[in-house]
Amino acid sequence: MNHFIRSTAIAASFLASTAFAFSAASAQQSEDIVADAQQLDTIIAIPGFATDADRPTDAYSTADLGRRIGEVITADLRNNGLFTPRGPDQVRAIQYGEVTAPQFPGWKTINAEVLVQGFVRAASPNEITVGCYLYDVGLGSELSRQGYVVPARDWRRAAHKCSDIIYSRLTGEQPFFDSRIAYIAESGPKNNRRKQLAIMDSDGANHRILTSGGATALTPRFSPNYQSILYLSYVDGNPRIYIYDIGTGRQRLVTQSSNATFAPRWSPDGQTILYSMAVGGNTDVYKISANGGTPVRLTNAPGIDVGGSFSPDGKQIVFESDRSGSQQIYTMNADGSNQKRISFGGGRYATPEWSPRGDLIAFTKIAGNLRIGVMRPGGGSERLLTDSWQDEAPTWAPNGRVIQFFRTAQGSGDASIWQVDVAGANERRLPTPGYGSDPAWGPIRP
Amino acid sequence: MTTNRTKFLLLAAAGTLALGACGKKAPPELPPAPLNQGNGYDDGSQSYDPNANQPGYGSNVPGGPGSQEDFVRSVSGDRVFFDTDEYNIDSQDAATLQSQVQWLQRYPNTTVVVEGHADERGTRDYNLALGERRATAAANYLASLGVARNRIRTISYGKERPEALGSDPQAWAQNRRAVTVTVR
């Protein structure tokens, strides 16, 4: 049942024509998804958030913060491609008293269907309270409200949380803006690329590079609690996976072995680590407790079994194997039993990633060019979402509705991070200070 | 295909000379990383030289007998090439590796690292596994001709270290390689 249709107040006014991009359409109705995704162009007015009194904070003054929060929300909603937000630059400012008493007739005259208003208050310079209110202009009624108390320096989080409540209320989907991304920052020439571990917010803000670049870093994965990152480093001269502690900047080997270890992944609960290890040229998938202990070998087919991604309930793993003669996608139970191939569409398939919703598996398809696609966990209903020279390594938004990947340019080899929604629409490049690859999208922040 | 391949080998031979001249540095053989990396920055690999304390180390004339330069000069090739997604040693590869074995038998104290590489047209993790597979295939062949297995180490760089920079079949063919690098 569609969450939206249950939200009667909304459906009556502005949503009747916009149906639902995602929730109604499962992957069996892929054409519907693609068609509907273009139709959502709900006009949302987002004036700068008001303040009761303009006070200085550790970040900006409360009046300044109010405007900036409106701008961040506007960018979030615009970049999602489903809405037409009109931000603080395009609509009139509001008074503090208006926040809970919106002037609907005025907003109707600019054709706004939805109105987002809010306030910023600072009881002390280091902490702010942000209120976020969502209104249906046509019905003249409130749809939702939330308040957040955050350190002033974390004001962007309050904005993303407000974006999340708007997105969730209007689409019936789970939130995803208040999340972070780990990736590899790239610089330098193609034959001597510097590759550094880096992190940023879901919109590219609060960007930070964590490693010096003296050793090649690859394939990061945020832990579900955002406290550490699994990644591959050549720091000791060999490819090995490490757990990097973001708070302390220290790292340790995941497992002691003289063999190459790579392709690290977390289980959804953060208790188990999946990795691949090459022994005598034969690569298999292993798992180990995040606290250490004895690894358990999950695959033993001759050839390359690599990567892997847990289903959201942690009971199954999707991985890649060339046991049939070429790279294909397989699923197995978390103990390694019941291994079966699910990709049969022709060509090679790589880097499977299970959606956090559980309904789809994203992959890289290699058939001439490299493209991003999705299929059902049981196989079938395959859809390709991108069409470029080389797109690789999908990673899911926390709500399973948007996929990030990296795109490599033919010739230069320059890599950049892109995203596309699960319908194949709204493809766009993410802003990063330099080139970037191997994105890994974390869950909603705790 | 065969003519193409011959061309690549010729190109590769030219590339090898250039490589020898600029003194490609072999990755040092390092102990496992400590559990804690101190400040956490990954620059620990830059100054460690495990051979530094060995008697006689550094007394060799650079480029003299037994050196990496000498190896590259003496063998018919320091590398073998592979077809797309393949790792088998064909007769040309076998001849190259045989010439490496002859040199290694002259310098029995030398150990080697076989570096496995893949072209850019594959996914990262799989290419790491494929590079390891190629390095192992070359290492196994050296061992089958009598080089002690404990003198040979393998390392995969996947698609991380292309040598030919184009995005075309010729460049990819040069990058699908296993390179033998001497370590003293």
Protein architecture, described:
The complex is a heterodimer of chains A (446) and B (184). Chain A is mainly β. Chain A folds into two domains: 3-171, 3-Layer(aba) Sandwich (Rossmann fold), CATH 3.40.50; 179-444, TolB, C-terminal domain (Neuraminidase, 6 Propeller), CATH 2.120.10. In chain A, 14% of the residues lie in helices and 42% in strands. Chain A contains six helices and 30 strands. In chain A, the strands form seven sheets. In chain A, strands 1, 2, 3, 4, 5 and 6 form a six-stranded mixed sheet that branches. In chain A, strand 23 and strand 24 form a beta hairpin. In chain A, helix 4 (62-80) crosses helix 6. The radius of gyration of chain A is 23 Å and the shape is globular. Residues 1-38 of chain A have low confidence and may be disordered. Chain B is α+β, with helices and mostly antiparallel strands and 184 residues long. Chain B has a domain at 1-23 and 64-122 and 156-184: OmpA-like domain (60s Ribosomal Protein L30, Chain: A, 2-Layer Sandwich). Chain B is built from five helices and four strands, in the order ααβαβαβαβ. Chain B has helices at 2-22, 68-74, 91-106, 124-144, 169-175; strands at residues 79-81, 111-117, 152-158, 177-183. In chain B, strands 1-4-2-3 form a four-stranded mixed sheet. Chain B is globular, with a radius of gyration of 17 Å.
User: What is the strand tally of chain B?
Assistant: 4
Q: Most extensive interface, residues per chain?
A: A-B, 63 and 48 residues
Instruction: Give the helix/strand class of chain A.
Output: mainly beta
Named CATH architecture of the largest domain in chain A: 6 Propeller
Describe the oligomeric state of these chains in a short phrase: heterodimer
By CATH reckoning, the class of the domain at 1-23 and 64-122 and 156-184 in chain B would read: Alpha Beta
| CATH topology tier name of the largest domain in chain A | Neuraminidase
Termini gap of chain A: 28 Å
Give the termini separation of chain B: 38 Å
From the coordinates shown, what is the CATH architecture of the domain at 1-23 and 64-122 and 156-184 in chain B? 2-Layer Sandwich
Instruction: Determine the CATH superfamily of the largest domain in chain A.
Output: TolB, C-terminal domain
Q: Report the average pLDDT across residues of chain B.
A: 77
Helix content of chain B: 25-40%
Please tally the helical runs of chain B, counting DSSP H or I stretches of 4 or more residues. 5
The strands making up the biggest β-sheet of chain B line up spatially as: 1-4-2-3
Counted up, domains of chain A total 2
Share in helix of chain A: 10-25%
| Approximate strand percentage of chain B | 5-15%
Unreliable segments of 5+ consecutive residues of chain B: 1-59
